[in-house]
Amino acid sequence: MSSEALVAGLTLLSFGIIIAAVAFGSAIGDGIVASKAVEAIARQPEARPNILTFMFLGIGVLEAFPIIGLGLAFYLLLVVVKVPDMIAHLSVVAK
Amino acid sequence: MHEQIGEHITWLWPIVGTVHADTIMTTWLVMVLTLVFFAFVGKSYNSAYQTRRQTVIEGIVNYIADLSAGTLGQRGEPFVPFFISLFVFIFVMNQFGMLPFKALGLPFGGSPTADVNTVVPLALIVFSLCWIVGFRLNGIRQFAHLAKPSPALILINVIEEIARPVTLAARLFFNIFVGELLFIVVASIVQAKVAIGFFNLSLAVTFVPFLIQFFNLFVGTVQAFVFTLLAIVYLSLAIGEDH
């Protein structure tokens, strides 16, 4: 295996690990926020619009971190290592 | 991938140096559109009877005014126009990326908020407002909260104070930027005509850009709202403790 293939493979692997970790954490956080909102609405149905507003606010604040992680992962994949160019080059070499 | 994301047409201006031409043009376009629209709405304002347009605009204005009144109380009243304009400006800039100006070959287009140079000044505007208003109301005691639980924590508090505008800007920037990036990535998969065996991946993901654009619509609205609400919250923290 050439060193270029190793770099491309390891970058893709790290990309996958970043996405998985980010999705894991944000899914748990969103689940907690939504379940608490449902509980609060069940307890006080008349406060529903207010609770929904703050639920979306909480999700908006919380979603920022996975999105930042995703942006940095794409930066790693497309700008720092340039994996698509690398793979195209590798497939040309293989032929 | 022919269409490059994160690359801008640049102008060379005297004194300031290189500037992003497309971001500036799009921001000016947004400013002109929103100013003309709101001048029209304000001019046609009639309290005697309500038109449909007036009801919609009053809904937005009332919503943000209620939020501000609920968090800031009576002292927040002079800042309500600022928050409304902040919300409308960011909202229109976020949704502007959906219009295909760049695809039509025009030099402007794309969301101006997908550029750090738009987002950081917005966060700095909010924080200079907070610091100036807090300083005028509380004087030098404004900065007493930095040593609040104990003076040993002053470093952590200073870091927190700096991290707030940074995260405020980064949150808005990355949400809009990654939305555009995901759109381009999926579109490039569709363009590349990928086929794995008998499974045509490109045909299967043809509908995904539509979903991503709906997601962007939602995210742009929520992030404009979050930015405004966090500005209100930070201003309420700056204004004082005797709330």
Descriptive report:
The complex is a heterodimer of chains A (95) and B (243). Chain A is an all-alpha fold. Chain A has helices spanning 3-43, 48-80, 83-94. Chain A contains 3 helices and no strands. Chain A is rod-shaped and about 65 Å long. In chain B, the strands form 2 sheets. Chain B has a two-stranded antiparallel sheet with strand order 1-2. Chain B is 65% helix and 5% strand. Chain B has one domain (10-239). Chains A and B meet through α2 of A and α5 and α7 of B.
Shape of chain B: globular
Strand order of the largest sheet of chain B: 1-2
- Taken together, the total number of domains of chain A comes to 1
Structural classification of chain B: mainly alpha
Count of DSSP H/I helices of chain A:
3
Based on CA atoms alone, the radius of gyration of chain A comes out at 20 Å
Report the biggest beta sheet of chain B as strand number plus sense, adding barrel if it closes: 2 strands, antiparallel
Q: Give the termini separation of chain A.
A: 15 Å
Alpha carbon gyration radius of chain B: 22 Å
Shape annotation of chain A: rod-shaped
Q: What is the arithmetic mean of pLDDT of chain B?
A: 84
- Percentage of residues in strands of chain A: under 5%
The largest sheet of chain A is: none
Provide the β-strand percentage band of chain B: under 5%
| CATH topology type of chain A | F1FO ATP Synthase
CATH superfamily of chain A: F1F0 ATP synthase subunit C
Mean pLDDT metric of chain A: 87
Order of helices and strands of chain A: HHH
* Oligomeric state as shown: heterodimer
CATH architecture of chain A: Up-down Bundle
